[in-house]
Amino acid sequence: MDTEPKEVVGPLDGKFEFKKNKDGTLNKQAVICTLCKKEFSFHRSTSSLKYHINAKHAFVGSSSSGARPGGLVQTTLTEGRALSKSISENLTQKIAKWIAKDCRPINIVEDKGLAEVLQVASRDAFYKPPSRGTVMTKIHDLYKTEKKKKEEDLAVADYVALTGDHWTSVSNNNYLGVTAHHITKTWELKSFALTTMKTEERHFAEACAEQFLTVARKWEIEGKVTTIGTDSARNMIAAARLLTFEHMPCIAHILQRSITVSLSDSGFVHALSKSRKIVGHFKHSPANTAELQAQQAALGQKQEPLVQDVPTRWNSTVDMVKRLNRNQAAIKATLDQQQHKLIMLTPPEWDKVQRLETLLEPCRYVTEILGGEAYVSCSVVLPALCHLRRVMEVSDEDPAYVVRFKTAFKEDLASRQEKTNNTWLKLATALDPRFKDLKTLPKSEREEVWTTLGGMLHEQSPRRSPQTSEDGPPKKKMSLLLQMCSDSDSDEEVQPGRDIHRYRAEPCISMEDCPLQWWSAHSGAHDKLALLARKYLATPASTVPCERLFSVAGHIVQKKRSALLSENVNQLVCLSNWLKEE
């Protein structure tokens, strides 16, 4: 009878049914597609039937949960076609790249959840993620490929600046991080990691100097390195003296150290001590935090947690006092409803906290500006420090404790600035078209900078002459020094050469403009100075690039991954840094 149920083919339920003979019996040697009524031979194998479904009915299935208009439904997982070898290989490559780029643990490929996601995405119910060994092999290959690109970049660079610092992992292993910075022929500033190498020796000056040399030789840039930036630790300063490179102390470290010294010798100590205890009262109790958030909502303020300052975290003190000042009303209302042993800030102490925010905000701004690595920062140091000196000028309205802070800050910063590489900073400032008027320097020091640049151009000319001869006949020798301006007190006095004079005659560009774009447009008119600009403007003002490198390393070398081989740590940290540039 037609009403009697028809038998279907097992793994393809609902897609095929056995053909009926005229006498009503089933012909188990033939099946009919229920979707297109096409007849197929059947000999226990379903391969041809699966191929027909995938080829002709890829978006049609039997699951009622995915039904579409007209009776069409989503295909089930078991109906997907197996991935080809090339697609599977590409997927494995992407998984390895994702793990390296985003600091994922290698054993994530063993997660069942990831396997299910990949099966749904690939429409292959039998797809299995690559093994840990396969992923590590791909990561090693990816590291070699990306490292070769970086070697090619450094091979064509004229000058390279380095920054370096040490870091201790959770497994108590010490690593040296080194980053490279250079300006390309197209005037793009490139910054990337060179290594995060494990070190066994004690951090004596000789050992540190040898480690830096080892990195430079490994990357074949020893003859191109101009400066090496480090913190102001004594061993690093002593190591820099042993090297032929110029030393650039981290200006951000110097600035933060001056802030710490000034705070310890001012009238803010007691107010800060009370502030830390108030913040700790809320940070250490979820119930107190919830009550504070309720008060913030009642006052129409943004619900935000308080911030505790940390001695080793830059700008954490200003972040703490800003949150306190912003949530002063909510804090008072919350504490008034609680029984606590806190000693509240008095109105004069709240005034101190507000004044401290005003004092530290410019320091935070300068620290962030000097910590960039995607733009020129070395030439900004002297203008930034000049700005801070003006901000810290004592006024008649300042209370005694503010006067003490400003005086201590300026004195400490001045003493530390004397120990920096001021010659390099002055030349970098002069080669930046934003600050080439050198108004941040005393008038008595400005001509010395231009004289030094003129001497460099004089030394550079014989070395550059063979290269310029390829473009045309050599230029005539410059005449004697240009005549001085009639006004002997003018800022535009005494030029050592025509190139310097033409460059100084160019108008300064806006603070918002990029100096590298200016040099890209004017390098033809100032070809000799352009080479010096590539040299001096590539140096970073701080060792923040290394600090960022260690932040990445901290995500990789965790408690559960403390046994990672040092070679793998180096490759994973460098790859994460390199791939994020893309």
TrEMBL record:
It is found in: Nucleus. Residues 454-476 are annotated as: Disordered. Residues 500-579 form the HAT C-terminal dimerisation domain. Signal peptide: none annotated. Keywords: DNA-binding, Metal-binding, Nucleus, Transcription, Transcription regulation, Zinc, Zinc-finger. Gene3D superfamilies: Zinc finger, BED domain-containing (1.10.10.1070). One of its GO terms (molecular function) is zinc ion binding. Residues 26-57 form the BED-type domain. InterPro entries: HATC_C_dom, RNaseH-like_sf, Znf_BED, ZnF_BED_domain_contain. One of its GO terms (cellular component) is nucleus. It comes from the Eukaryota. This is Zinc finger BED domain-containing protein 1-like. The gene is LOC115549393.
